[in-house]
Design goal:
ABC transporter substrate-binding protein, D-Maltodextrin-Binding Protein, domain 2, 332 residues, 2 domains, signal, 16 helices
Length: 332
């Protein structure tokens, strides 16, 4: 009888220990809600971090949700609908200028160039920017980074956007491609993969890159409220470490390998098209190779905003940018 009691006790103890271990494992995993301003191949390193398990390695469960637009993304972040936002850095300046008591802090940069391309309706063999003069140009939404960069690049090439061409910027982001396909505009500013799809289907021709023309700028960064950063600094560090691993992975792998890794996140897109888009962005240096948002890029961002008449106030780099976390991760 004593023997059976002893065996039963050992079995019971084993069950308790297994349960305790499982419970510890579950409690160690922290859920992080991330809102992305749009779902795009442009954000390839983020999807690599998901596909290659870099977030899991850090004990994080990332819940990704679309927030569709800078204003909606900021609303979700400020109302605690999400913990971290992936959106253009200009949004943090807009929030700060409105007198936010809990400012939004940029802590990890993901892309470092504009992600749009100039697409012409007709094929142009020897393109020069002055060919846009007198044309109808279908641009992006006023106040957003694509439109501001678009106007900045036009000015850098001697074109006054509101005088030298007919600038259309009152069409919703989701409808811009359809408007061009329906016959509106001689030129259009498009993101990938739409630009490449239009080229494949003969609806347009990629003739220039706004990202190449505008130089390095913190186009999309991960940001969070100062209060969340203060209360969850270790979580933010783990998140940044996973992103840095993904950035290094993207930098050291081919466009084909990257495309195969992120393909599950773009089930409706052919993997060969994903590869074409990744290669285009990778070759022009759009993917940041580390998460540090440096002061030069921050100044370039504000210069672009100022040129477009959209900078509400100048903000010093150290006010809305935290580089300490990214720099500590890189130095590990």
């Amino acid at each position: 009888m004593m023997r059976y009691l002893k065996i039963s006790f050992i079995v019971l103890l084993s069950v308790v220990l297994i349960g305790a271990i499982s419970g510890c494992g579950q409690s160690d995993v922290q859920k992080v809600r991330v809102g992305e301003v749009t779902h795009s191949i442009f954000y390839a390193p983020q999807y690599v971090a998901l596909s290659e398990g870099f977030f899991e390695e850090e004990g994080l469960e990332v819940e990704l949700q679309g927030t569709f637009g800078g204003d909606k993304t900021m609303t979700a972040l400020l109302s605690d609908g999400i913990d971290i936002a992936l959106v253009g850095s200009e949004t943090s300046i807009y929030v700060y200028a409105q007198g936010a008591t809990d400012p939004v802090i940029n802590f990890a940069q993901l892309t470092q160039t504009d992600g749009t391309f100039l697409v012409s309706r007709d094929k142009i063999e020897n393109f020069s920017w002055d060919q846009l003069k007198g044309s109808t140009f279908l641009g992006q939404r006023k106040g957003g980074m694509p439109q501001m960069v678009g106007e900045y690049v036009l000015k850098q090439n001697g074109i006054e956007p509101h005088e030298d061409l007919e600038l259309i910027q009152n069409i919703e982001f989701a409808n811009i491609a359809n408007a061009f396909a329906s016959g509106t505009g001689d030129f259009v500013q498009l993101f990938e993969p739409t630009a490449s799809i239009f080229e494949q289907e003969g609806k347009g021709h990629i003739i220039a890159s706004f990202g190449t023309e505008s130089g390095h700028v913190p186009y999309t960064t991960f940001m969070t409220k100062q209060s969340f950063l203060d209360e969850n600094e270790e979580t933010v560090k783990k998140f940044t470490r996973a992103i840095y691993k993904a950035q290094q992975w993207v930098d050291s792998h081919t466009a084909k390998e990257i495309a195969e890794s992120i393909a599950p996140h773009f089930e409706d897109t052919d993997v060969e098209l994903i590869e074409t888009v990744v290669d285009r962005y990778k070759s022009q240096g759009s993917f940041a190779t580390n998460p540090v948002l440096d002061e030069e890029e921050w100044l370039n961002l504000q210069n672009i905003m100022d040129e477009a008449g959209e900078l509400p106030t100048e903000v010093d780099h150290g006010v809305l940018v935290n580089t300490e976390i990214a720099e500590s991760i890189i130095s590990e």
